[in-house]
Amino acid sequence: MSMKRKNLEMIRKLMFRLLPIQILLAVVDSVNNIVSSFFASNFIGVDAMSAVGLYGPADMLLGALSAMMVGGTAVISGKYLGQNQIGKVKEVFSLNMFITFCIGAFFTIAFVFMGVTGLTGFFTNDPTLKPIFSRFLLGMSIGILPMILANQLPAFLTMENNSKRTMIASITYIVVNVVLNFLFVNVMKMQEFGLALATSLGMWSFFLVEAQHFVSKKSNFKFSFKGINFKEAISIVTTGFPGAAGNIYMTIRGLIVNKLLEIHVGSVGLSAFAAANNLLMVFWAIPAGMMAVSRLLISVSMGEEDRQTLTDIMRVMFTYYIPMICMIDALLIIGAPLLTSIFFQDTASEVFSLTAEALRILPLCMPFSIICMHFTAYGQASEKKAFVNILSLLDGVLDVALFSLLLTSTFKVNGVCMANVINGIITTLFIVGYSCFKNRYFPKNIDELMVIDDNFGVPYENRIDISVNSIDEVVNLSQRIIDFCKEKGIDDRRAFFCGLALEEMAGNIVEHGFTKDKKKHSINVRFSHKDDQIILRIKDDCIPFNPEERIRMSENDDVTKNIGIKMIYRMFKDIDYQYLLGMNVLTIKL
User: Fold this and answer.
1) Residue 454, φ and ψ in degrees, nearest 5
2) Per-residue confidence of the chain (590 residues) as pLDDT tens digits?
3) What's the pTM value of the predicted model, to 2 decimals?
4) Are 136 and 195 in contact, with CB atoms under 8 Å apart?
5) 583: which strand partners?
6) Which end of the chain is less enclosed by CB atoms within 10 A, N or C?
7) SS3 string of 142-166?
8) Which residues on neighbouring strands pair with residue 523, listed in sequence order?
């Protein structure tokens, strides 16, 4: 297997290992929306279902603000992790928690006021729907604060390799929501308020399960008001805004689409589109999870200036993610009537046929959206602000709103669905067109499609990137590094030290890390020379192993124990270890 293929395979395994938790996180809200829609349509009525749909733009706005903080924080934290600045990541954590608390508190107060006073004309002026929606909004306001805070924590749990807590929190949320919906709606007859209150209390349970880790001794991330660097707030917002702008635009788009459906189809159209959206949100969690994994890895790669890994992330997206989504799309289209029956049992009703038709069209935009999401994440991390802002504007509101205006009067609900698919095609063409414009020719490979800056990372001729799987390969690579150093004019002393460091540290991983379990492991070695600085980075997917801690633990033991590691730590003063995203990362600078 070639060096590039080995690196690609390591990235693929890492992405798919992190993917289930991220999908689960993304699917939680979707599952609970389905729960709410099920109880609304089956135990309250179509008008309650319309209230769920009318809340969509508000949910999108809150999601946009949350996504802005998640995106900006993940990108900046990832870069700091790639640069081995864990102290900076802790500062970003405290700042993120403070800002998101303020955002959540503001909207909680605002929505309570609107729900109590009935000032909800911004969402609907229908005299029948308005009081129903006010009660629903009041119940939803109780869960705004934990929702925004809880959305921030999974990224930090992933950094600490504790994603299982996210899974526990997600399952807790779903169980609590189902039980409370049955109690409030079916037993206590609390109608729309009970419907929303069940979701809000479920979100509180989700947040509290996650937050428990961050108040324990196991977490490196503790909230500290003294540790807040408010200067980073601007960086978080400016970095996160382009990606989150799509959600803000979706808020506007949602209001436009709801108004068009209300005019051309009526409440049955609102109910059908809301039902189709809520059903598909479960499956949209898969692209969302894919994007969350890739965004964090892209950010770390940017911090490490690792060009190969950066492009490999996109290769995994095109060669594995897209085919997976296409298969899921086919199943959704075939199963559209069955899915529709979850909400509407009368197959002869108009709302049933409209929902089923929507479920046959909307999935077609998913593959295009995965491409758009990944290039948005890359644009954020690489600070291609004009590119990301235009892409977000097209994807978020412009395409869908424009084509919905043109098609809804003729094709009704199908017109809105078709507009979403057309949007996917246009955004993909924009990505290719941007590459053609910047390169002055049609892109022939991933590097050219991504328009990676020429000065990004260490030039190929000044670095070695290779994966090793045996002690013989480690020894051979050690000699190769020594020869490489001599070719670059590095003195014999430093060249020898570099080869020795690689042989000792990577050899220790092969001898001990590879034998701790029955899994197949590999080591990714990156050796670079830039501005007279030598950097040796050794990354492996074995169990956590901090060499410095191992030295401290064996201080009073036999002096010959771990002698190789001790020798390297005496020879090199700048050594940094991290257990990052389930991988040991050792960086040695000389």
Assistant:
1) -60, -30
2) 455 676 777 788 878 887 887 787 777 777 777 777 677 767 666 666 667 767 777 787 888 788 888 878 888 887 787 776 777 888 888 899 999 999 999 999 998 888 788 776 667 676 777 887 788 888 889 999 999 998 888 888 877 777 788 888 888 988 998 899 888 888 888 878 888 899 899 999 999 999 999 888 878 788 888 778 888 888 888 877 766 666 667 667 777 888 888 788 887 887 888 788 878 878 888 998 898 888 888 888 887 778 888 889 999 999 999 999 999 999 999 999 998 888 788 888 888 999 999 999 999 999 999 999 999 889 888 888 889 888 888 887 788 889 988 998 888 889 989 999 999 999 999 999 999 999 999 999 898 999 988 777 666 777 777 777 788 888 888 888 888 888 888 888 888 888 888 888 888 888 777 877 777 777 888 888 777 778 888 888 787 777 777 666 555 555 556 677 777 777 777 787 777 767 788 888 87
3) 0.70
4) yes
5) 580
6) N
7) CCHHHHHHHHHHHHHHHHCCCCHHH
8) 468, 540
Q: Determine how many CB atoms are found less than 10 A away from the CB of residue 571.
A: 14
CA 262 to chain centre: 33
Residue at token pair 């077609």: 364
Q: Residue 465, CB half-sphere, CA atoms under 13 Å: how many?
A: 20
Q: Are 155 and 73 in contact (CB under 8 A)?
A: yes
User: What domains are defined for the chain?
Assistant: 3-447 (no CATH), 461-589 (3.30.565.10)
Amino acid at 232: E
Return the amino acid letter for 157: L
Rounded CA gap, 96 and 99, in Å?
A: 5
> What is the b/e burial string over 118-150, where b = at least 16 CB atoms within 10 angstroms of the residue's CB?
eebeebbebeebbebbbbbbbbbbbbbbbbbbb
Question: How many CB atoms neighbour CB 274 within 10 A?
Answer: 26
Question: How far apart (Å, rounded) are the C-alpha atoms in residues 258 and 254?
Answer: 6
Rounded (to 5) percent helix, strand, coil in the chain = 75, 5, 20
Cβ atoms of 92 and 223 within 8 Å: the answer is no
Which residue in the block uniquely carries the two structure tokens 């409370």?
A: 180
Assigned token pair, 307: 């060009």
